[in-house]
What does this fold into?
Amino acid sequence: MNRSSSEPTSPLQIPDYRRFWLARFASAVATTGMVVVLGYQLYDVARGQYGMSIGSAAFELGLLGLAQFLPLFLLTPVAGLVADRFDRRAVTGLALLNDTAVALTLAIATYLHLLSLPLLFALGALHGTSRVFIGPALASIAPNIVPAALMPRAVAINSMAWQIGGLGGPALAGVLFAVRADIPYWVSTALLLIAAISAFGIRKIPPPPGNRDRHPLRQILEGLAFVWNDRFLLGCVSLDLFAVLLGGATALLPVYARDILLWNGHPVGSYGLGLMRAMPGLGAAIVAYVLSHRPIQNEVGNKMLLAVAGFGAATIGFGLSRSLLFSLLMLALLGAADMVSVFIRNTLVQLHTPDAVRGRVSSISGLAISASNELGEMQSGVAAALLGATGAVVFGGIGAIIVTALWAVGFPELRRVRTFTTQYKD
It folds into this structure.
């Protein structure tokens, strides 16, 4: 049957989706830039104000990752339940306003020279709290406003918003930080406010029928059971968790920028840090653009496994590099490989999850992503203190490749999935 001329042929033709995309994009630019500066300031404060060694200051970066992860670990079940019981765009908007307050506090504290390690850790934890509620609520909105036939393209365009933000946010923050340290936070404050207004502008999305009639604890357990009983989703979510947990090199980028990589005989500093943080986003954005026009359709499971292995190989290349240009290339390849994995996983989660449990399932998937990122930072900080920054990054990349091989054997469902419509359950 031919598609009616009145039906949209692209998600961007839908006004609510454009507001959704703007909220995602503006928050991505704001938060990725804010996190880059926060990490650099914490490392710099530890080294300068507290007189710590490189290893000890790198360990503090790991603790910052832990501080951001703990709220995610503790509140993820609650956040998923909130996304399924209340208006998802309102939950998103309120959480974005909370993150706006975090950015504003950092701007004021930086301007007044009031930074300290306890304050930076506390604000990092509050930022993690905002993210835990934004993630499942925002991710669950798209299937409510986009037809199912357009969801693969919507997932790719969603990823473009995040990845372009991940590209522009760190680069912009690095440049602005060099001009004056507080400016990146003022910009993040404005962008997060725009994101919140955009989220509130989406039409009201009532919670799925019946979700407020059952006991909250039972609903949380239902979400966990759904993922646990779905072998493919369990396999790909846990693969991402452990591979990125080991292979996360971004936590140590401040070490590379300040003490390892040189340009014309001088450390690359905040400019180099901004470029390095932007490169994974550049690689991912390019792949997301391609996927928005030509989504992956065949051999999705095997392609996801190869992408994760490629992520590990690029991590090793970055860890061994002493050339800024080669390091930037490896980071771009790392981001490109990760984008393939993210696209496949997110499309499957959105298409195969009933709306009644979508918030809870998205929160579990988000917890795995956040655990891999934040705990990966903790792992990288500890490994750097023991092995040095280079040893930690190379060790992590090798670990990611080993995990991929183990999951390919332990979860054969990953290799069997051919298309997004494959019935992969036993």
Summary: The chain has one domain: 11-205+214-416. The radius of gyration is 21 Å.
